[in-house]
């Protein structure tokens, strides 16, 4: 089978022919049909996480395909089922977080495409307990990005306990934000889309946003205050200084959640914490429960990522497109 291997950081991926994986009784062999290209894959390829990633590795954690071999212990998946694999390849399953269905907090995880072979391949094997079925009315190309981008913003919104008619501000109308706007709207919220690019106004409206705030032309916190203050802010941008500009726009009891892994600090004024009882938090991916919910919610409400589909052999060009910020809005590799 053909795989794209990151042999060492800062070098193009190399195509190799590997033997088909042998599966154990508790595993599933997936024929990968589509694999999303996530910003995290760039961190692997560019060596940003060199202290964590052991090279060589086969990236790809937005996997959608068909179960072609099923170990005999995996009674809940049949050959021919449409399935996918997310960021979390497996977790310990016995810690309190795992038992409560909150696997992203488990200290003993294996990660698809980092510690285990990922989906930049014609086939991959995966533990049956983490292989997730894809609803019938969700096509595989659109399902793939939901395994990371989709579940990341869906889970973040769920953790924020949105109530109907609350004002949810989504910062960034990119690969993550355009899904967050659709989910927040379908959850019954009023949605404000925030972007530094005026071009995103019309698109945000098509996604369901009720308001648009141009963060390069206005003080976004002041604009949010004019709307009564944001009950929830989900920020999908990677720049701490951009996140910082929004905190003053939170309403009393407002919650701000971060999903972009910026490393610079943001400041919160204790006076605001006390007088407005605001909460500043974050979220990464989602466990199996929230992943299933994400897929079903997307299917039920007709929510799809905007994808550009490229053949597998263009993977290096696609990674360049992600690096240069050219992708509209999630890139997906087509394997078959
Ligand atoms: Zn990802
Ligand atoms: Zn655990």
UniProtKB/TrEMBL annotation:
UniProt GO MF annotations: alcohol dehydrogenase (NAD+) activity; alcohol dehydrogenase (NADP+) activity; zinc ion binding
SMART domains: PKS_ER
Domain Enoyl reductase (ER): 11-333
Entry-linked Gene3D superfamilies: Medium-chain alcohol dehydrogenases, catalytic domain (3.90.180.10), NAD(P)-binding Rossmann-like Domain (3.40.50.720)
InterPro entries, per database record: ADH-like_C, ADH-like_N, ADH_Zn_CS, ER, GroES-like_sf, NAD(P)-bd_dom_sf
Pfam families in alphabetical order: ADH_N (PF08240), ADH_zinc_N (PF00107)
Cofactor: Zn(2+)
CC terms in the record's Gene Ontology section: cytoplasm
Sorted UniProt keywords: Metal-binding, Oxidoreductase, Zinc
Domain of life: Bacteria
Similarity remark: Belongs to the zinc-containing alcohol dehydrogenase family.
Protein name, per record: Propanol-preferring alcohol dehydrogenase
